[in-house]
Specification:
678 residues, 59% strand
C-alpha cells in the first residue's frame, strides 16, 4: 500500500512537466465530505454526485434505483415499485444490511435504530435536488452506520417566485404515478415548497414457481402509496436562517400470499419525519444546528397454515428516532476548523399480536448516542495541498430493554421473558487524509479512516424467528469496526476525457454473525444468537471514465472490483475465507446521455457477477445484466414534458435476491407540466 501511495503522488511529476496550475477542473460543490461547502477538488476522498440532469433523465422509478449506476454501489431492489424493502450498500459490506451505509436527508440521518434500515420508498424523486455519495468510512464526522460510506440526499430549494409542477404516468402492471408540486420564493426572506404524490400498481408475483410453498395461495404483490413533503425557509439575516420540513408517507404493499384475509398478507408504513435546521454565517464564523424526529408505525398482517390449522398474527411496531446535531466552523484562508456534537435517541415498542389466539410476543428497547467531533483542514503550498484531520467520540447506552412471550403458541420463547441488562460502550473514530492538486488536470488523495456500526435494537432486545431460524436477543453486543486505507484521484487525460480511479484495503473486526447457542427448540432446531465474533477483509478497486466531447453529450463507464471475505471466524472456522453476502466481485456499468434543446435520451446498462446469498456460500444467485432507456421531449419552452422509459429492456428475469426474481421488462409513459414565473 505504501508503494502504491507513492506512485499516485509522484504521477503528476512523471506525466507533466508544466508548471503547476491551481485552477482545478473539479468545480462541483459538495458538503458531505466535510459537512461544509467545498469543491470536490478540495475533498480528500472519493465523492460522486448525482446531478439534477441525471436525476431528470435516468430511467429509474425510485431514488435508490438511480444509485445503482455508481461505481462501488450495490442495490437489492428486485421488483420495482412493489418492493417493500431495498438495501443500498457501498464497497461490499454485505448488501443485505442497510445499517452499514449511512443515509442522510439534508445532512440528517434516516437509518432507524431498530433495524438500521431506510425506507427508500418514502424518498420521492421529485423532492430531490441532488445526491452526494461519499465512499469509505465517514464515522469521524457522522458516527454510527457510516462504516461503508455516506449517502446524502439533498432536497430542492425554491428559486423562482412561483413554480407549479404536475405529472402523471402509466405503465406496465397497471401502474399509475401522479404528483403535484408548488414552490415559491416569496421574497428575499421567505420561501415555500410543498409536493404530494400517489402511486399504485397491481404488481406481479415475484416468487419463482420452484420456491412457492403453497401455490394455491400465491398472488401478485400489489402496492398503494402516497406522501406529502413540505418545507418553509426563513432567512431574515445572514447569521440566522431557519428551515422547517415535514414529510408524511403511507403505503400498503402485498406480500404475495392470500389465505383468508380479504387482501392477503400485506405490510403498511405510516411514516412521519420532521426536520428543523438553523444555520448562519458571519465573516469567518458559521454554524448549523439541526433537530429532527422520525417515527415509523409499522404493521404487517401475517397468516399461515400450520398443521392444517389457520393462524394469523399482526406485527405492530413504533420505531422512534430523534435527536440534534450542532456543527460550528471557523475558517480563514489556510485553516478550516470544525467542532460539533450530536445526540440521538432511538427506541422500539413492538409486538406480534395473534388474531386467532390470545398469544402475544412483545419487545422494547432504547439506544442513546452522545457524540463529539473535531475536524481541522489545513491548506498548504498555494492551495495545492489539503490536509484533513478528524476525530469523533461516540458513547452508546442500551437500556429499557425487555422481552415477553405469553400464550400457548409461543411457550418455547417464554424462558427468555423479563427485563434485559443495560449495556454501554464507546468508540473513537479517527481520520487522516491528504489531497494534492499539482495541476489543473491532476488531483490525487490518500486517506486512512475508521468506521463503526452499532448493533440494531432488533438484535439487542428481540427474540423470535429470523432467516436462520429461531434466535434470541443479545443485549451485550458491541459495535462492528473497520479500518480503511485508500488512495485515488482524478486525471484529465484529454480535454473531454477524465479517469477517476481509487484503490482501497479495509480490515474489520467484531462483525456480527448468528452463532448456534447449543440450545434446541423442540429438541431439534438450533437456537441462534448474534455475536461479535469475526474479522473481515475487503480489497477493492474502482475506476470511472467520463467522456464529454461537448456539453450535450456525456458518456460514463465504470468498473468495480470488490473482494470482501470473512478473514477469521473463531467460533465457526468453516466460514473462514467465505465471501460476504450480496457483494458481487465485479460490476461493470455505464450510460450515454444526450441532452438536446428539446429532446433528451439516456441509455444505461449494468453487469454484476455472482452474489452469494448465505454466509457459508452454499447458495448464490447468478450474475446478470440489465439495460434501461429513457427518451424525453419538451414543448412550449419547456412547459410541457413527455417521456417514455423502458426498464430491463431485454426482459432479463434474473434473481436479485435469493427469494425474489425481477419484474422483467417494464414500460412507462409520463406527461408533465411545468409552469415557472421568473
Amino acid at each position: 500500500m505504501k508503494y502504491t501511495a507513492l506512485c499516485f503522488l509522484l504521477f503528476p511529476y512523471i506525466s507533466s512537466g508544466q508548471k503547476a496550475d491551481t485552477t482545478l477542473i473539479l468545480k462541483e460543490i459538495v458538503v458531505t465530505g466535510s459537512r461544509t461547502e467545498r469543491p470536490i477538488s478540495q475533498s480528500p476522498g472519493s465523492i460522486h454526485v448525482v446531478t439534477p440532469v441525471l436525476l431528470r433523465n435516468a430511467p429509474a422509478q425510485t431514488t435508490d434505483d438511480i444509485l445503482v449506476m455508481l461505481s462501488g454501489v450495490n442495490t437489492t431492489r428486485s421488483d420495482g415499485l412493489s418492493n417493500m424493502h431495498s438495501n443500498v450498500s457501498i464497497r461490499g459490506l454485505a448488501g443485505d444490511e442497510q445499517g452499514r451505509t449511512l443515509v442522510l436527508f439534508d445532512g440528517i440521518p434516516l437509518n432507524t435504530s431498530d433495524e438500521g434500515s431506510v425506507n427508500w420508498n418514502s424518498i420521492h424523486i421529485d423532492n430531490v435536488q441532488r445526491i452526494e455519495v461519499f465512499k469509505g468510512p465517514g464515522s469521524s464526522l457522522y458516527g454510527n452506520n457510516a462504516m461503508g460510506g455516506v449517502i446524502n440526499i439533498i432536497s430542492k430549494t425554491p428559486l423562482s417566485p412561483l413554480s407549479i409542477n404536475a405529472s402523471a404516468s402509466y405503465g406496465s402492471l397497471c401502474t399509475w404515478k401522479t404528483s403535484l408540486g408548488f414552490s415559491s420564493r416569496i421574497n428575499n426572506q421567505f420561501a415555500l415548497f410543498i409536493s404530494g404524490y400517489y402511486n399504485q400498481t397491481n404488481g406481479f408475483n415475484n416468487i419463482p414457481d420452484s420456491l412457492r410453498t403453497d401455490p394455491d395461495y400465491s398472488i401478485a404483490r400489489f402496492m398503494k402509496e402516497g406522501g406529502i413533503y413540505s418545507k418553509i425557509l426563513y432567512t431574515p439575516i445572514s447569521l440566522f436562517n431557519i428551515e422547517i420540513a415535514y414529510d408524511l408517507y403511507q403505503d400498503k404493499r402485498g406480500e404475495g400470499e392470500k389465505i383468508e384475509a380479504p387482501e392477503g398478507e400485506y405490510r403498511h408504513f405510516n411514516h412521519h419525519r420532521i426536520q428543523t435546521r438553523f444555520h448562519g454565517r458571519k465573516n469567518t464564523f458559521s454554524y448549523q444546528l439541526a433537530c429532527y424526529f422520525q417515527r415509523q408505525n409499522y404493521f404487517k398482517l401475517d397468516e399461515r397454515i400450520t398443521r392444517n390449522t389457520y393462524q394469523r398474527f399482526d406485527v405492530k411496531s413504533d420505531r422512534d428516532d430523534w435527536g440534534s446535531i450542532l456543527h460550528v466552523r471557523l475558517n480563514d484562508k489556510h485553516n478550516d476548523l470544525s467542532i460539533g456534537g450530536e445526540f440521538k435517541h432511538g427506541s422500539i415498542d413492538g409486538g406480534d399480536y395473534y388474531v386467532t389466539s390470545p398469544d402475544q410476543v412483545l419487545n422494547r428497547g432504547t439506544m442513546n448516542f452522545v457524540s463529539v467531533f473535531i475536524q481541522d483542514e489545513i491548506t498548504f503550498w498555494k492551495e495545492r495541498l489539503w490536509l484533513q484531520l478528524a476525530l469523533r467520540y461516540d458513547n452508546a447506552f442500551f437500556h429499557k430493554g425487555s422481552f415477553e412471550a405469553k400464550g400457548e403458541n409461543v411457550t418455547d420463547f417464554n424462558t427468555y421473558n423479563g427485563p434485559l441488562p443495560n449495556n454501554r460502550w464507546d468508540n473513537f473514530s479517527p481520520r487522516a487524509a491528504l489531497r494534492y492538486n499539482p495541476t489543473q488536470n491532476i488531483s490525487t488523495y490518500i486517506s486512512y479512516s475508521q468506521g463503526f456500526r452499532a448493533s440494531i435494537l432488533d438484535d439487542l432486545c428481540r427474540s423470535g424467528w429470523m432467516w436462520v431460524g429461531p434466535k434470541i436477543a443479545n443485549p451485550e453486543l458491541g459495535p462492528e469496526k473497520i479500518n480503511n486505507y485508500e488512495i485515488g484521484g482524478k486525471f484529465r487525460l484529454l480535454p473531454p476525457l477524465s479517469v477517476s480511479p481509487s484503490l482501497y484495503y479495509a480490515c474489520g473486526k467484531d462483525f456480527l454473525y448468528y452463532v448456534a447457542t447449543g440450545e434446541k427448540l423442540w429438541g431439534k432446531r438450533d437456537i441462534y444468537q448474534r455475536q461479535n465474533i469475526s474479522e473481515v477483509e475487503v480489497q477493492g478497486l474502482e475506476s470511472d471514465v467520463d467522456y464529454m466531447p461537448f456539453q450535450s453529450l456525456k458518456i460514463n463507464l465504470n468498473y468495480s472490483y470488490n473482494h470482501a471475505k470473512i478473514k477469521n471466524f473463531s467460533k465457526n472456522p468453516e466460514l473462514n475465507d467465505k465471501i460476504l453476502t450480496y457483494a458481487p466481485k465485479h460490476q461493470l456499468k455505464g450510460y450515454i446521455l444526450w441532452t438536446g434543446k428539446s429532446m433528451s435520451i439516456m441509455v444505461r446498462g449494468l453487469y454484476k457477477t455472482k452474489q452469494y446469498t448465505t454466509e457459508d456460500n452454499s447458495s448464490s444467485i447468478a450474475g446478470f445484466s440489465v439495460w434501461d432507456m429513457q427518451l424525453s421531449k419538451r414543448f412550449f419552452q419547456n412547459k410541457l414534458y413527455i417521456s417514455g422509459e423502458i426498464i430491463n429492456l431485454f426482459n432479463n428475469r434474473h434473481m436479485n435476491t435469493k427469494e425474489y426474481r425481477s419484474t422483467g421488462r417494464i414500460a412507462n409513459l409520463k406527461l408533465a407540466v411545468n409552469i415557472n414565473q421568473d
